């Protein structure tokens, strides 16, 4: 497939749990970010945004050509509607580019209160067929986020029938419940996953029993893996060409509660794959280092979810999950002196002199070096950076720039 056959370059949509993560997502290559306000979203424990944060985030993103969407995707109860119209009016005033909504009643409230605020239909609406997509298109909705249970072939069929923007997840944690419509958390902990309070009950470890004469009988033998409902994480990095050719307009990364290192690393990897394929689709070759980058931020083993087949036990995690090679976000580059080759680093995790570190940044080659010399701000030599957020002066072997990340491989105890 050539560029002429592909209507437009797909959007790379990244999560942003707070203002700092928004900035990293945009700088590392996101075309758009989705955030949560302090109401009506499904990530109550994410940092979330005040209206003031939203204002700053929108200004930062728009200055760099990126968009900001607000997730307002709870399944509402009667009491949730108090103040909702005013909330959407404020989002419209701030300049939010779109809101992501699941509940039809909330769609109506938003469109009446803030008619200039674009509405996208959330994955929580469980859209799995082209007729449902057609329904929302006829309602004037410009984009739907498909359920994660939709296959790649079904996406192709949807795009053949309906002229509407399609957003689909390509990376991140997979909820075991249908399109994330969980009741386990509510039932077991009184925390409603559909109103932002998920306790991740599915990822707990369970022992199974059956009722029988004489009492409960275990359905496991001594030493068996404990049972969980824990999916491997979605990763479609190697299949981005197929996603683009199927007509997906927005490629979405999950993870508003994930770390800065996760957001920067994953966004940067997908950015490189999308750009490489778009520029030379006929000669595109997937580079192993792109997958290696993803693995440095992976929390769990990876799967392609529902895109190519119905998931089996091979797509689930049982017992003790395998250890992943993980990296710590150890330092943030604040400044760099070209004459001395010294970088000013804000410490985010412990590191020591003599340790091997890796620097990554947007639109640059990563490099690895060993820390030979470092000092505090007063110029006193340091053996280790142990204090959170302390400023460290570090001799670097190649030029760096603000917002570059310094990371170290985690030491497993």
From TrEMBL:
Organism: Brevibacillus ruminantium
Segments forming domain Peptidase family U32 C-terminal: 327-407
Family, per entry: Belongs to the peptidase U32 family.
Name assigned to this protein: U32 family peptidase
Keyword list, A-Z: Hydrolase, Protease
Pfam families the record matches: Peptidase_U32, Peptidase_U32_C
Superkingdom of the organism of origin: Bacteria
Keyword Zinc set for record: no
InterPro entries in the cross-refs: Peptidase_U32, Peptidase_U32_C, RNA/ubiquinone_mod_enzymes
């Amino acid at each position: 497939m050539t560029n002429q056959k592909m209507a437009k370059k797909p959007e790379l949509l990244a999560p942003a749990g707070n203002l700092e993560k928004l900035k990293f997502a945009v700088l590392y290559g996101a075309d758009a970010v989705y955030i949560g306000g302090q109401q009506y979203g499904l990530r109550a424990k994410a940092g979330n945004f005040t209206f003031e944060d939203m204002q700053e985030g929108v200004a930062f993103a728009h200055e760099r050509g990126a968009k900001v969407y607000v997730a307002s995707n709870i399944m509402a109860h009667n009491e949730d509607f108090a103040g909702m119209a005013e909330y959407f009016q404020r989002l419209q005033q701030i300049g939010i580019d779109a809101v992501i909504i699941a509940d039809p009643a909330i769609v109506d409230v938003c469109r009446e209160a803030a008619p200039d605020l674009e509405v996208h239909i959330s994955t929580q609406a469980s859209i799995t067929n082209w007729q449902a997509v057609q329904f929302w298109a006829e309602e004037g909705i410009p984009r739907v986020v498909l359920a994660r249970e939709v296959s790649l072939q079904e996406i192709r069929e949807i795009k053949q029938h309906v002229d509407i923007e399609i957003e689909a997840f390509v990376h991140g944690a997979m909820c075991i419940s249908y399109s994330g419509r969980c009741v386990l958390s509510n039932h077991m902990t009184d925390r409603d996953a559909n109103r932002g309070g998920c306790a991740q009950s599915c990822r707990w470890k369970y022992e199974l029993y059956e009722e029988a004469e004489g009492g409960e009988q275990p359905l496991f033998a001594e030493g068996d893996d404990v049972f969980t409902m824990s999916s491997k994480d979605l990763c479609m990095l190697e299949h981005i060409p197929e996603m683009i050719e199927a007509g997906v307009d927005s490629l979405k990364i999950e993870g508003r509660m994930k770390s800065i290192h996760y957001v920067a690393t994953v966004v940067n990897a997908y950015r490189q794959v999308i750009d490489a394929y778009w520029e030379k689709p006929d000669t595109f070759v997937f580079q192993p280092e792109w997958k290696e980058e993803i693995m440095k931020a992976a929390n769990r083993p990876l799967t392609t979810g529902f895109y190519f087949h119905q998931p089996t036990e091979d797509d689930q995690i049982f017992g003790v999950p395998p250890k992943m090679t993980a990296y710590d976000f150890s330092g943030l580059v604040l400044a760099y002196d070209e004459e001395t080759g010294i970088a000013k680093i804000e410490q985010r995790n412990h590191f020591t002199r003599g340790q091997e570190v890796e620097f990554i940044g947007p639109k640059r080659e990563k490099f690895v070096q060993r820390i030979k010399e470092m000092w505090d701000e007063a110029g006193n030599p340091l053996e280790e950076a142990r204090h959170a957020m302390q400023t460290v002066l570090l001799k670097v072997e190649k030029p760096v720039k603000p917002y570059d990340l310094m990371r170290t491989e985690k030491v497993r105890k």
